Backbone:
């Protein structure tokens, strides 16, 4: 302080006491230097306060820590995108937190040793007779089978305060939860449920377990999606494939049996309909013909009663005439003059004549 | 005079700033701190904010990250109660809850020193707890028998108790299995068992499929014949109804059975001589009796 006092007072005294031209020039030079220093100082003070302005982008949130303590309680401490101002360091500190972007975590703890490149090119290491626990991951199912399973989890940060200030490395914590979820869920499911029968149920259960774990750890994240892939051990791939083939064969046999059922049902119901229809038609025809017979009888009865002999003869001759027109072969065999019966020989089994169009009226 | 006043103000501000730097320290949101007086821990600070202290060398401040740290122990062998060798590794989330207790236990409050201590505790806790459970409590399709959560919880409680007795100032937030496996030689045996289980399934599927298909077919046949039989019964009933209806008409013919008989015979004759029949007749058959009758009758007319 005393030092500064001297700086200010010294040039002032000099201008008053010294008459020397050289000294005066020096004093003027010093005076203008101080003016420049003052301007610079003012500019620096302005810059110092302006440095408190900062912007928050759309993909992030920010928090001001005043003496290390967040300004505002809970979620009110979060600043949304836009221009903000804080006191300069060391009073305030601005912490930026990425929030809206979706984060991704994969668990390969239950998968055999491989790399994405090797997997794409199909040049994976061949499977040995057993799994080395140091390098090959797997999970044990409820029925004590060994399978490989892996998952990818998509999540976003919901509570940035606990995500950033609660965990040194929250992503690793999520990863641990995902690894645990695969182990735990596999321990609850039978191998066939995981691989074929209830793939969706297994996935749901994994996601549920991860949700429970991150919630109890208060990680402040929300799970968006979880993808799970499970395969039998590569060593047993052929025998598992055989089961699939056997199941398909069985399904095909059942399908064929079902289509046979449909066919037989359709045929039998068609047959049944035609039987009943035929009966109905025959019955109706019978009734109709009997009724018309009765009507004809009623019509003819008066004539018959008038002259029965004449009626019989007339009707008979008429009927015979009709019959003769319809008969194909007519052989007239007149009576021999001596009244003896003629001897007639019939050759049976002759070639039947070709049927001709009916000549019935 | 005015100039002097300004100078004094600036000087005072500078002194205040200097004093603040010496006497005040900040604890950030994610930190805890311990204040030592001549090397002896005296004050524990768990809330963020600005605090007062005597300047060095009287008091000193040690700050620690109080966020949850991740730690994962080695994947090592343990024995279950039913003598199965089970490889297991667990992860823990731990944090410094009491800096005053934590600081003197580990050289300068080193995190790695704390983690190696933690690892030993986890190993013994894991070993002890796994030894109390059978493998079927680790993996089981029946939720009642599955004790996965309970085992994890027991290990966590065990580690917590050990930390408590030693008062390390460490708190376990969560603990879970990271990896569970079997020794390499056992995996080969498991594969052999899995293969035989698959083969049982294959033969069961083949046999069952054929049997089920056969069952479906025979059921279909039975139902089909039932349908046809019902139809035949229906047809008989319909015919019966028709005959009953016809029977109501029959009394008409009773008026003159002779005529009725005659008409029936005429119809039958016509039906019989309808087509493709050969008729051999002589001149006595009407109307061909005309062949004999005309010469006899003509002169009389």
Residues:
């Amino acid at each position: 302080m005393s030092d500064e006092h001297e700086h200010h007072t010294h040039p002032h005294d000099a201008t008053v006491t010294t008459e020397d031209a050289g000294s005066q020039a020096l004093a003027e030079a010093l005076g203008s230097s101080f003016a420049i220093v003052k301007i610079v100082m003012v500019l620096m003070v302005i810059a110092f306060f302006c440095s408190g302005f900062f912007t928050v982008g759309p993909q992030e949130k920010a928090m001001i820590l005043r003496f290390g303590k967040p300004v505002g309680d809970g979620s009110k401490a979060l600043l949304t995108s836009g221009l903000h101002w804080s006191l300069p360091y060391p009073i305030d500190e601005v912490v930026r937190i990425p929030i809206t972007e979706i984060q991704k975590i994969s668990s390969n703890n239950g998968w055999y040793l491989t790399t994405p490149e090797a997997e794409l090119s199909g040049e994976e290491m061949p499977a040995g007779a057993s799994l080395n626990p140091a390098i090959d991951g797997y999970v044990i199912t409820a029925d004590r089978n060994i399978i490989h399973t892996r998952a990818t989890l998509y999540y976003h940060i919901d509570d940035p305060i606990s995500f950033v200030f609660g965990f040194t490395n929250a992503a690793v914590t999520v990863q641990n939860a995902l690894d645990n979820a695969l182990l735990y869920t596999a321990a609850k499911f039978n191998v066939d449920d995981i691989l074929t029968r209830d793939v969706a149920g297994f996935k749901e259960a994994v996601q549920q377990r991860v949700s429970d774990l991150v919630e109890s750890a208060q990680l402040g994240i929300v799970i968006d999606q979880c993808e799970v892939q499970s395969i039998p051990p590569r060593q047993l791939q052929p025998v598992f494939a055989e089961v699939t083939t056997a199941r398909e064969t069985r399904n095909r046999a059942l399908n064929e049996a079902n289509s046979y059922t449909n066919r037989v049902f359709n045929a039998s119901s068609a047959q049944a309909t035609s039987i009943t229809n035929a009966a109905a038609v025959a019955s109706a025809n019978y009734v109709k013909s009997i009724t018309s017979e009765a009507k004809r009888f009623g019509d003819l009865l008066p004539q018959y009663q008038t002259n029965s002999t004449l009626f019989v003869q007339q009707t008979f001759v008429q009927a015979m005439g009709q019959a003769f027109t319809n008969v194909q072969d007519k052989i007239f065999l007149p009576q021999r003059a001596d009244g003896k019966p003629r001897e007639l020989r019939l050759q049976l089994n002759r070639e039947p004549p070709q049927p001709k169009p009916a000549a019935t009226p | 005079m005015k100039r002097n006043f300004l100078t004094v103000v600036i000087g005072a501000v500078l002194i205040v700033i200097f004093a603040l730097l010496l006497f005040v320290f900040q604890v950030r949101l994610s930190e805890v701190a311990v204040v030592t007086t001549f090397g002896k821990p005296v004050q524990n600070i768990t809330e963020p904010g600005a605090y007062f202290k005597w300047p060095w060398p009287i008091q000193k401040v040690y700050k620690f990250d109080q966020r949850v740290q991740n730690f994962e122990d080695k994947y090592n062998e343990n024995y279950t109660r039913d003598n199965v060798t089970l490889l297991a590794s667990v992860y823990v989330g731990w944090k410094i809850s009491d800096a005053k207790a934590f600081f003197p236990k580990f050289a300068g409050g080193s995190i790695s020193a704390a983690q190696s201590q933690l690892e030993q505790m986890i190993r013994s806790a894991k070993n002890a707890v796994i030894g109390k459970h059978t493998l079927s409590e680790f993996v089981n399709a029946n939720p009642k028998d599955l004790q996965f959560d309970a085992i994890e919880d027991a290990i966590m409680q065990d580690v917590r108790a050990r930390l408590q007795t030693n008062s390390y100032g460490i708190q376990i937030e969560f603990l879970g299995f990271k990896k569970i496996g079997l020794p390499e030689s056992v995996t080969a045996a498991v594969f052999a068992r899995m293969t035989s289980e698959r083969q049982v399934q294959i033969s069961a599927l083949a046999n069952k499929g054929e049997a089920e298909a056969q069952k479906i077919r025979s059921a279909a046949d039975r139902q089909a014949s039932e349908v046809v039989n019902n139809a035949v019964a229906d047809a008989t009933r319909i015919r019966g109804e028709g005959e009953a209806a016809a029977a109501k008409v029959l009394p008409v013919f009773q008026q003159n059975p002779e005529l009725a008989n005659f008409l029936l015979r005429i119809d039958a004759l016509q039906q019989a001589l309808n087509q493709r029949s050969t008729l051999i007749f002589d001149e006595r058959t009407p109307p061909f009796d005309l062949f004999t009758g005309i010469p006899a009758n003509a002169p009389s007319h």
